[in-house]
């Protein structure tokens, strides 16, 4: 019976490698996090918001632009982590043979994958920080409570990085990523409370939305940016911690099965 590999701090070398590449392309990498929120806010907040007006929320009402801003922060977390450990990791693994080069060093496979997950979560944190800085001057978030979005971005980054790596361990080729994007990411983007309250959905759809991690990240981000506390928030936080606690070891195990036969 083989012994489980020992995972050490060497996984940070993988994170360091990806960060070094990111620094070389930072001018391009900074553009989407800076411009995407402005495009979303202009399209959905300003354009659609004129027709929607105010949204009922916690017994009162808020204007539509303020309502969707924290949802878009959560979507930024999801997209940056998920696409980093799906398309980007797959390219490094399959086409660039970066994983092969790393495994020729003292790194073990689990350290390589853990470094990829850590980098994806960091990239989510960087993008969320930029987006928060962009929307803050519009008065869409309440400081200092909105700073809680940053640790949430790190936790959400781990969750969606693990989910992305699970798909990377299972897909036969890069084109197959279209399926999890269509069946997993797109429904979350549309039905996790980003653009309208989850309570507006029929009961069966509301229960389905509560099973999706983005729903809880949106709720927590909205609480942080609005500066309110609700005991039910602990349930969402526990869900994300449990998802990360199960998803990361499972991603390590499935990637080992894929790469070492």
What can you tell me about this protein's structure?
It is a single chain. The longest helix is centred in the N-terminal third of the chain and has 32 residues, at 64-95. It is built from ten helices and two strands; from the N terminus they run H-H-E-E-H-H-H-H-H-H-H-H. The two termini are 15 Å apart. Helix 5 packs antiparallel against helix 10 (233-259) and helix 6 (149-170) packs antiparallel against helix 9. A hairpin with a 2-residue loop joins strand 1 (54-57) and strand 2 (60-63). Strands 1-2 form a two-stranded antiparallel ribbon. The chain is mainly alpha-helical and 261 residues long. Helices cover 73% and strands 3% of the residues. The chain has helices at residues 11-24, 26-52, 64-95, 98-103, 109-135, 149-170, 178-191, 203-210, 213-226, 233-259; strands spanning 54-57, 60-63.
Give the termini distance in whole angstroms: 15 Å
Structural class: mainly alpha
Order of H and E elements: HHEEHHHHHHHH
The fraction of residues in strands falls at under 5%
- Note poorly predicted spans: none
Radius of gyration: 19 Å
Which geometry do the CA atoms define? globular
Number of strand elements: 2
Helix proportion range = over 70%
**Which strand order spans the largest sheet, edge to edge or round the barrel?**
1-2
> How many helical elements?
10
Largest sheet: 2 strands, antiparallel
């Amino acid at each position: 019976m083989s012994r489980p590999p020992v995972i050490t701090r060497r996984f940070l070398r993988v994170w360091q490698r990806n960060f070094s590449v990111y620094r070389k392309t930072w001018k391009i990498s900074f553009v989407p996090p800076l411009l995407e929120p402005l495009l979303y806010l202009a399209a959905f907040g300003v354009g659609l918001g004129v027709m929607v007006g105010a949204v009922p929320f916690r017994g009162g009402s808020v204007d539509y632009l303020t309502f969707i801003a924290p949802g878009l922060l959560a979507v930024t977390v999801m997209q940056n982590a998920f696409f980093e450990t799906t398309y980007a990791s797959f390219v490094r693994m399959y086409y660039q043979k970066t994983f092969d080069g790393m495994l020729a060093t003292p790194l073990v496979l689990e350290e390589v994958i853990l470094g990829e997950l850590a980098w994806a979560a960091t990239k989510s944190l960087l993008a969320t920080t930029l987006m928060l800085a962009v929307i803050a001057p519009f008065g869409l978030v309440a400081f200092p409570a909105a700073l809680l979005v940053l640790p949430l971005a790190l936790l959400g980054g781990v969750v969606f990085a693990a989910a992305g790596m699970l798909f990377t361990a299972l897909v036969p080729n890069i084109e197959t990523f279209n399926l999890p994007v269509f069946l997993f990411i797109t429904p979350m983007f549309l039905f996790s409370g980003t653009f309208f309250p989850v309570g507006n959905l029929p009961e069966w759809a509301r229960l389905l939305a509560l099973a999706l991690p983005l729903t809880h990240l949106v709720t927590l981000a909205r609480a942080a940016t609005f500066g309110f506390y609700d005991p039910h928030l602990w349930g969402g936080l526990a869900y994300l911690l449990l998802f990360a606690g199960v998803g990361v070891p499972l991603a390590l195990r499935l990637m080992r099965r894929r790469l070492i036969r």
